[in-house]
Design goal:
With 242 residues, the chain is of the alpha/beta class. The strands form two sheets. Strands 1, 2, 3, 4, 5, 6, 7 and 8 form an eight-stranded mixed beta sheet that branches. Strands 9, 10, 11, 12 and 13 form a five-stranded antiparallel beta sheet that branches. It contains six helices and 13 strands. It has helices at 15-23, 37-47, 89-98, 112-127, 160-165, 227-234; strands at residues 5-9, 29-34, 54-59, 72-78, 100-109, 131-134, 152-157, 172-183, 192-194, 199-201, 204-210, 216-222, 240-241. The protein has two domains: 5-144 and 176-183, Vaccinia Virus protein VP39 (Rossmann fold, 3-Layer(aba) Sandwich), CATH 3.40.50.150; 192-241, no CATH class.
Amino acid sequence: FQPKSLLDIGAGPGTMLWATVDVWPELEQAVLVEASASVRKIGQSLAVGAIAARADWVAGDATIDLDGLGPADLVSAAYVLDEIAPASLPKLVGGLWRLTADTLLVVEPGTPAGWQRILAVRSQLIEAGAHVSAPCPHEAPCPLVPPDWCHFSRRVARSRLHRLAKDADVPWEDEKFIYLAASRQPAPVRAARVIAPPKTGSGKAALKLCQPDGSAGERLLSKRDGEVFKSARRADWGDTLA
């Protein structure tokens, strides 16, 4: 997958654009849809001279302004669904999928409610013929049962301004998120996904895994497991394990 075009709905100041060109520097074109004029202005000013891809900023509401847009290799909507009325979500997801030439990426806060929204998106897309690329290694129903839920986490450094805005002392925070990548291309054989912080000790590693067969559970590995154990020792929350 080497996307040449990006369509980002609810783009904010262009966060997804920066992430995309970091992974795929050869990106040629991006269309960024954002309702706030002030946020669009900030995004444009940040990208000038720093982003090689041609970036077109479009004023628009995610729920009503998709009809005039063209398809893109990568379509994204990050932290958007939680701002949309639940009754409008199926229409929005259907519109995003119609605009997806290859891959649709949806990111939500890593809360139980965010997970439920992702599950609804997942079901709708599978019914529409999409193939789940990540994080699920299968297209069976999610094996997790509340109060458990699927999510991941990344530690983010806080600037001084960030700490002041949040009245915080710690120079970092753990951002929890849940995501779904769906493709028009059949997924290759997928490896198990680590869906909780790994537990490692002397000669052992315990990983909670979502498995290609649609099940989920903890797997205990030791030195007797050879190369798999070495991979498990290095695995992080969100990684795959062969």
